[in-house]
Structure formats: structure tokens, C-alpha cells
Amino acid sequence: MSKFFTQNRILIFFFLSGIFLLAFNKIHDTDAWLHLSLGKLIWTTKGFPVQEQFVYTNFDTPFRYTSWLFAVLFYLLHQFTGAFGLVFIKASIITTVFLFLLKDSLRQGKIYIALPILFIAAIVSQSRFVLRPDIMLMFFLASTFYIFNAYLYENKKYVYGFPLLLCLWANTHSSVNLIFAITGAYLVGSLCQPILNKKFGLEAGYLTTRQLNIFLSILAFSILLSLINPNGIGQYLEGAQVLGTDFFKQELSELLPPSGELKFIIIFFETTLLASFIINRKKASLTDFLIILPFLIMPFLARRFFYLPFIVGAPILIKNISAVIAPRSAGSFKFLWGTLAFLLGCLVLSVKTHWQEISYNSIKNFGSGFNYVHMPKEAVDFMDNHKIIGRTFNSFAFGQYIIWTGHPLRTVFVDARGAVPINLLEKLTLFRERPAIISELYQKYKFETILIPTKKFTTGLPDEIFRDIDASFSHPDWALVYWDDKSMLYLRRGGPFSHIITENEYRFINPDMAPQVFLATLGGYKDRQNKMMEIKRNLKECNSNTAQLLSGLLHLASGQYGEAIADIEIVAKRGSDKFKESALGILGDLYFKTGQLDKSLENYFQTSGYKRSPSILHNIGNIYMQKGVDQKAVQFFEKALNINENYRQVYPDLIASYKKLKKTKKIEGAQKKYGSLTDDQLAKQYFTNAVKAHVANDLKTAASEYNKSLQENPLVAITHANLGFVYFDQQRLDDSFNHFTKALEIDPDHANAYYGLGMIYKDNGQAEKAIVHLEKYCDLEPRGHYNRMAKELIKQLTEEKHP
Question: What are phi and psi of 663, to 5 degrees?
């Protein structure tokens, strides 16, 4: 027996060590800076300020914060121990969470089942092992279930300490409202389980009448005690307010529903968990089933909750599986040592990937300290060195770092709390494409600095209709003085920092441009020399991947393929996923141009999006065609046309390959289709001109260019829809209606045409038709600024119909 327990301790030691190592990663989450800043503010002011202190757009609103205790404790920890202490305590809390889960699991589960399932749950949940109050949510959930189950199954009195636990929860995280779902499950389960046991011969446990009375008394006292928090009853409502706002649900990635591999993992686990109740139907607990129900639903509301089914459900899954495992295997040494081998294998695999500094698909890295991969550290350092202070217009993600490094000398437009008016958040999503927004906001808020991220640097697809449209940020009143791979810093011309502009302005390079736009806007020899001079300056000062990529593109445009390849290969080797995709695609093109076909294929196949790009598929087909492998060439040509059957450039090569393979019927079909297509390059050029004029609000030029585009190619839905909007703005509603209708004849699922028709019906007083078309738009475009505008219009029209 003693040997058995010794082996158990060895297994538990390795398990908890593995959890600690998984959680011992550098602090990279952008919200960490906000919580530290708020903790500093509350501690140094010895209480809550009356009004907002960080966000100048909200200075006239009351200060609110739901995780003050977490923030203050971790701020003080940072003051005394630095980053190491933060990471160590974070890892310790998460390890304690899994210790609670393990102890709860072993109450009715077997260790060789519990440890692998919990370790897998930890690996899946690892991305949430960050410096956020979420780690305290994990702690409160795990400890609550441990306390309640100890009372339910062993009548242990830990439950008497629950009021203090709930009070701490209420002062640490707004998820305290989950307690109603949890306690409701224990109450309903305990009331119904005796009936089910008697009627169906089940054997599941439940709280006795005496236990229920004590449980209800403790719960009532706990809820009263939890109201001792700065927000009172409002602490129970905070989380729902964020989740109830369309802007946040659409624009914050962690509030989007799960998709792809993550969605599959969640569904697989939840299906397995539910199936375990069927397998263990004799002893399965109604309380357990009711406990997991809300946590099964929550991940599909927002991906930030994806880890909750694993934290809450793993002990229940372990219990259900253990109940049907033969008891004779409970102490089998081979099972125990097999479990140890499994844990060691998982640990080695996890630490191997976890140890990397920044891998292609990971932003975490092992060890203590801060990881600034998402923070504009270098740009803020530039601001510090040049004493740039005051109000900053910033992106959503950058606000918290600016606050931590600069408050009170610097304040921000918005931070991660997102508590500014929704109309300002909407403008934050639109300012790049509508420069006038910056002028409007400056007039109201008088900021002297703009600090925003560069857009994701991708090559785009050469066959995309928008490929030559410059959507990068620029404004004549603002000068770019610093940029790197993460951020761009602008100062206002004529403002207090004009001397910094004189010394540091970038006059010829805009790092926000897409590569295809950069190539399309290259001027003559002198302009290229000026651009290369600024690129070299940036490489010297920042050694950025963006500058290295631009250098390669400039060499490419000048026919210096060797120099271009050398530049782009540097990016492909050292770049993160933000740049690697672009570099691989460009290298594929370069090697194709220089006849290095095998290297071209190697790079194309490494791009994650090559299967979605007709142009790359066309190039791959051309490579196989040159290699004499026509059968394979045809496969790639046909894949390109499956994506876009009107991709005209593919047909001559496809027909040539068909002829070599003597596929007569396919030759005839391809020739017929090719003959029906026109060379629409001129149409695309007119379209590009029209969009540029449309963005600049030059409606007359836009209408003229759209009409020219339609003369060259009248079967493009987006051109008709865009012209419809131009005519709508000119109040030519009949013409606008005709073009929206034509767009839908060409493409019945063209979302913008439905939006346009909805607006026309609204202006004509035809509310029912307007609602139908706007709802169709929302179905086709479930996210974005115009989705939210459409929903507002639907709500307004519905209220007018049914006041």
C-alpha cells in the first residue's frame, strides 16, 4: 500500500511541475499593463478616483473598475519582486487551480485517468495562462467546486469559508455572477436527485435536507458579503454589459465565436463529456449535468471562454469514466507508470514548443519578464527620448502600455476597458479610410500625437479587384516621425513638436502601404533613391522586417533580383507570422521569375493561403507546365478556376495543357468560356480610379469612372453596387435603385446591394421592405460598422412601426 501511495505522489509531483512550467511564461497580454496601471492608481491615491483619469475622451464620466483587488495586489507584487514575481505567482495560482481540480477528481476518480485528462485540459487552456483576472476566475471556480463537493460527498465544513471566498471573487472579477448558475445546479440537483434515484434505481449523491438548509443560509450570507465591493450589485452586471454590445462582439477577436480547429476541439471535448453521462448513467449526477450546462454554451458565445468547459468539465469527465473502469485496475503499477510516461511525453512536447522565444504561431515564451511583441515599446521609447507628452490618439490595444509608461504626463483616446461612447469606437475603426475623422476628432480633443499599429503586411492577391487602392493611413496635417514592425508615430504639423518633425520626418516611405500599392506608386530614379535612403535609415535604427521587405520590393522593381531575394530571405527566416507569409509569396514569385522552379514551388507551398489564391495556383501550374508535368499543371489551373472561373489569364495555359494531354472535350469547353470573357484590365483600372474618387468624396468623378468600368465589363456586381451608392449620395434614387437591382441580378448574395436598397426603401417610407433588405444584409455581413448601422436602422424602423 505504501508503495502505491509513493507512486501516486511521484505522479502528482510530475503533474503539478508540468502545470507550473506551462504557466511560467513571459507576460505578453496587452491587458496586463492596464491592470498594473489601475492598481498603481488605486494604491497611490488610496482609493478610487471620482472620475476617469486615463482616457481623455471620458474625463467627465465616473471611474469604474471591477477587478481592483487583483490589480492592487499584482501592482504591489511588481513593485517588490518585479516581473519575476508576477510570473511566479501567476504560475503558482494556475498550479493551485489544477491541484484543486485534481483533488476534486480523485474523490471519485482514478489517478491514471485524472492526470492525463487534466494535463490535456491544461495544454488546451494554456493560452489563457496570462496576467489577467481570468486566472482568478479559474481559481474561484476550481476552489468553489472543491468546497461544495467536499460538503456534498464527505460533509466537510470547508463550505463555511465560502462567504469570504465569494467576497474576494466579487472584488476580483465580474464573473462573480456565475455563482448563481453554480449554486442553482446544486440546489436543483439535490431536490430532484432523490426522486430520480428512487424512480430509476440510480445511485448519484445529493445534499440532504439538513445540508440544503445550511447551504442556503451560507449562500445568502455569501451574497450579502459579496456586495461589499466598490460597485455593489453592479459587479454582478458588468460582464453582461460588454457581451451585450455589438461593437465589442464584432470587433474584439476574443469575443468572436470559435472557429476552425478551436471549434472542433471544443465540440469534441463537450461531446465526449456528454457521452460520459450516458456511459455512467447508473451513477451520473444531475447536479454535475446542471453544473456543466452553462459552461458548455459559453464558448460559443465568445472564444475567450473556450477554456471553461475544460476547467469545469474535466473532473466530471474523470468521475464518469472512472466509475465504469474495472476496480481491479485501480492500483495497477503498469497503469500508474504508464500514466507517468504519458505525462513526461506531454511535458517534453509542450516545453519544447513553449521554450521558443516567439514561434511562427505562438506569442508566448518560457520564463519570467515581459514580452513586448504586441506593445509599441520602441515607439514609446522614442516619445520618452524626445519628451513627447500630452494627449495621444491611439489604437484600442496600445492605450494600456501608453498609460503604464506615461501617465499622468500622457493620456489616451481609449484603453482596453473600451468604456468610451460607441460613436467614438466606430470612428476608431474608420479613421484610416476616412482621414476627415482625424481632423474632426482633433478639433474636439486637441491631441498632438497619433500612435497606431501598422496594418498586417500581406502581399495581397494579384487578382484582387482592390489591389491598387491605397488604404494606408496618411493625413496632410500629420507627419510620420517613427515606425517599426508594430507601430507608427505621427506628430501634428505646426504643433509643439514641430522641431522633432524637422529632424525625424519620413517624407517618402509609408510603411502602412500594402506591397502591391508600394510597387504601383514607385516614381522615377530620384524618388526611388529617396525611398531607399529612408529604408536604410529605418534598417539602421530599427532593423525592421517591414523595411527589409520594402528594400526587397524596391530591388525587385529595379530588376535587381539577386538583391531582392537576399532581402526577402532575411524576412522569411526571422520574420514572425505577420511577415513570413508575405516573404514566402514574394520569394515564390522571385524564384519563378529567375527560373528557379523548385525553390519557387517550395516557397509557394509554404504559404498558408496558396490554395485560396488563383494567381499563385496559376503560377504553380505554370511551373509544372515548364517541367513537362502537364497532368499536374492542369490540376492547379483547374483549382484556380474553381476559385474564380472568370480568371482570364489561366485559360491560355490550361488550353495548351489540355492539347498536350489530348483532352478534346475539355479544350472545347475552355475555349468557349475563354471566348466569352473580355480582357477586363481596363475595367479594373477605371474601377480603381472610381474608388479613389469615391473615398475622396468626388462623386462626379466617381460616377464617371464607374460608368466607364461598366462599359468595359458590365457584369461586375460590386461596380453596380458602388455606382448605386454614388447615385444615392447624389439623390438620384431611381438610378441608384436600378444599379443595386442589377448588382443582385449578377450576384444574388451581394450584401452591399441589399444595404443600398434598404436605404432607398427607408427614404421612400417603405419600412417593411427596408427592414427585409437590411436584415438580409446583416445575414450576409455579420460583422463590421455597417452591420451595426443596419441593426440600428432596423431597430428604429421597427419602433416606428410599433411604437
Answer: -100, 80
* Contact (CB, 8 A) for 601 and 595: no
747 in Cβ contact with 717 (< 8 Å): yes
d(CA 682, CA 291): 62
Pairing of β 390-394 and β 449-453: parallel
Residue-wise pLDDT for 447-505, tens only, equals 999 999 987 554 443 334 444 456 688 899 999 999 999 999 999 999 999 999 999 99
Residue 681 to residue 278: CA distance in whole angstroms: 62
Distance, in Å, from the CA atom of 139 to the CA atom of 98, rounded to the nearest integer, reads 9
Could you tell me which residues are beta bridge partners of residue 390?
410
Would you call 15 helix, strand, or coil by DSSP?
helix
Given a cut of 60, whether residue 621 has pLDDT beyond it is yes
Whether 737 contacts 757, CB under 8 Å: yes
Residue indicated by cell numbers 482609493 = 47
Average pLDDT rounded to a whole number, residues 313-329: 82
pTM: 0.87
How far apart CA 458 and CA 473 sit, in angstroms, is 16
Asked whether residue 358 carries a pLDDT value surpassing 50, the answer given is no
Q: Are 165 and 173 in contact (CB under 8 A)?
A: no
Are 473 and 484 within 8 A, CB to CB?
no
CA–CA–CA angle 580, 581, 587 (5° rounding) = 85
The two most distant CA atoms of the chain are separated, in Å, by 90
- DSSP-derived secondary structure for 219-283: HHHHHHHHT-STTGGGGGTHHHHHHT-HHHHHH-GGGSPP-HHHHHHHHHHHHHHHHHHHHTTTT
Cβ-based burial of 181 (10 A; exposed 0-12, middle 13-18, buried ≥19): middle
Q: How many CB atoms lie within 10 A of CB 129?
A: 24
* Residue of 341, 321, 239 lying closest to 274 (CA atoms): 321
